[in-house]
Design goal:
Elements lengths: L6 E8 L2 E8 L11 H4 L15 H12 L6 E5 L5 H8 L3 E6 L4 H11 L6 E4 L12 E7 L7 H11 L1 E12 L4 H10 L2 E7 L2 H7 L3 E8 L1
Parallel strand pairs: 3-4, 3-6, 4-5, 6-7
Antiparallel strand pairs: 1-2, 7-9, 8-9
């Protein structure tokens, strides 16, 4: 059966390297013939979010293009198209990509294929139903994750479940109102917070305005 949504392939430059990214054509796309997304709590308005290239995702990909990933077990949350995971994987990193959307793995697999990279380990994740077998990670990353009022609590709890004593957490967040709530919840769980504001270059290159948060256990 032919999918009811339209797609495109765009070229994006990260740290001087060009990548082909397979994505939805625009935010008007929707296809849920069997109601899988609806049963997962994904509305028609939220359905296309996973399949777009977002400024915060480009910034996270850029950070991961130079981050020291040697010997780190890494988890990307809400990976969407998997750009950051794609770069980590291309660099030989131990990456597990995760998302809640039923089509994420399909798009991420295609992005690996068209860039001639190995397949990425993927795990479907619902933050409200943690997977205890997923294990713990040395680095947990994510971008533009805080859409809904309940997301800070779910995300903080999920991260804490999969963090070890020395885990670093990097969250790239545009100016979304839920970030203060998320910071409070991470502090309550025993994490220290540092952040840097987006740079002029990140705005010029990727259109990103916001903050890059780093969390670590106190």
């Amino acid at each position: 059966m032919t999918a009811a949504y339209n797609t495109k392939i765009e070229t994006h430059s990260i740290s001087g390297t060009f990548y082909q990214i397979y994505s939805l054509k625009n935010r008007d796309q929707f296809d849920d013939p069997n109601g899988v997304a609806e049963r997962s709590g994904i509305s028609s308005a939220m359905w296309p979010i996973f399949g777009m290239v977002w400024p915060a995702g480009l910034v996270l990909a850029e950070i991961m293009s130079t981050y020291n990933i040697s010997q780190l077990k890494i988890l990307e949350l809400g990976c969407g198209l998997g750009f950051a995971s794609l770069i980590i994987n291309a660099r030989g990193g131990n990456i597990t990509a995760s998302d809640h959307h039923p089509l994420t793995e399909t798009f991420m697999t295609e992005n690996s294929r068209i860039n001639s990279f190995p397949s990425i380990r993927y795990q479907a994740c619902d933050w409200s139903n943690p997977i205890t077998t997923l294990g713990k990670f040395d680095l947990i990353i994510g971008s533009d994750l805080l859409y809904e009022p309940h997301h800070p609590e779910l995300l903080a709890r999920f991260i804490n479940l999969h963090a070890n004593k020395a885990t670093q957490i990097i969250i790239v967040n545009p100016k979304r109102r839920q970030q203060a709530n998320f910071k409070r919840r991470m502090t309550t769980l025993g994490y220290s917070t540092a952040f840097e504001n987006s740079s002029e270059k990140q705005f010029i290159d990727h259109g990103f305005k916001g903050k890059i948060f780093t969390f670590s256990r106190v």
